[in-house]
């Protein structure tokens, strides 16, 4: 089967929670995702679907002419298969269609694979948020992509 990228729906949330729990030490709750999908008019979420199962997702807030990537994760069984790349490229394309001129995100300083992926897509490091992550006080690298 082929990987497809589409808008996230409430029906995807069980799969999304599995991805969250295997990807983060402090995962978002199902209620947080429900709120994003049903109550946040600025939120936009995509899922990567393989064999009718969500295997990755990315979320972004659209504020004025900026996009802020809130989170991205790929199920461990599908990592290193360009799922994250496909999600981000689709998000970038959709952002251009919606008059977004720049996209930002924060990433753990130690997450060299993610930083490499973002750099490959044209994101550049423009600062550090000291002690950003509450689980271990790790710094975050602030990255921007200008469309």
In the CATH scheme, the class would be: Alpha Beta
What fold name stands as the CATH topology?
A: Aminopeptidase
Q: Could you say which overall geometry the principal axes of the C-alpha atoms support?
A: globular
What's the helical proportion of residues?
A: 25-40%
Q: In which order are the strands of the major sheet placed?
A: 1-2-3-4-5-7-6
Cα separation of the termini = 32 Å
Largest sheet: 7 strands, mixed
CATH superfamily membership, which one?
A: Gcn5-related N-acetyltransferase (GNAT)
Tally of contiguous helical segments: 4
What's the alpha carbon Rg, rounded to whole Å?
A: 15 Å
The count of β-strands is: 7
Architecture in CATH?
Answer: 3-Layer(aba) Sandwich
Beta content comes to: 35-45%
Which series of helices and strands comes N to C? EHHEEEHEHEE
Helix-and-strand structural type:
alpha+beta
Assembly context of the chains: single chain
Write down the overall mean pLDDT.
96
Word description of this protein:
Strand 4, helix 3 (83-97) and strand 5 (102-108) form a beta-alpha-beta unit. This protein has helices spanning 13-23, 30-39, 83-97, 112-120, and strands at residues 4-7, 43-50, 53-63, 66-74, 102-108, 124-129, 140-146. The chain has 147 residues and is of the alpha+beta class. The mean pLDDT is 96. A 7-stranded mixed β-sheet has the order 1-2-3-4-5-7-6. Helix content is 31%, strand content 35%. The termini are far apart. The longest helix has 15 residues, at 83-97. It has a single domain (4-146), classed as Gcn5-related N-acetyltransferase (GNAT) (Aminopeptidase). It is built from 4 helices and 7 strands, in the order βααβββαβαββ.
């Amino acid at each position: 089967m082929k990987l497809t990228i589409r808008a996230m729906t409430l029906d995807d949330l069980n799969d999304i929670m599995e991805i969250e729990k295997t990807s983060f030490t402090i995962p978002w709750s199902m209620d947080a995702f429900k709120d994003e999908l049903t109550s946040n008019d600025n939120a936009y979420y995509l899922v990567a679907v393989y064999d009718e199962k969500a295997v990755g997702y990315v979320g972004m807030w659209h504020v004025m002419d900026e996009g802020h990537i809130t989170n991205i994760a790929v199920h461990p069984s599908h990592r290193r298969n360009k799922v994250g790349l496909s999600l981000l490229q689709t998000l970038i394309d959709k952002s251009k269609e919606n008059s977004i001129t720049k996209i930002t995100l924060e990433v753990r300083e130690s997450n060299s694979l993610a930083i490499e992926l973002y750099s490959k897509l044209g994101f550049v490091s423009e600062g550090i948020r000291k002690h950003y992550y509450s689980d271990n006080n790790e710094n975050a690298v602030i990255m921007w992509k200008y469309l």
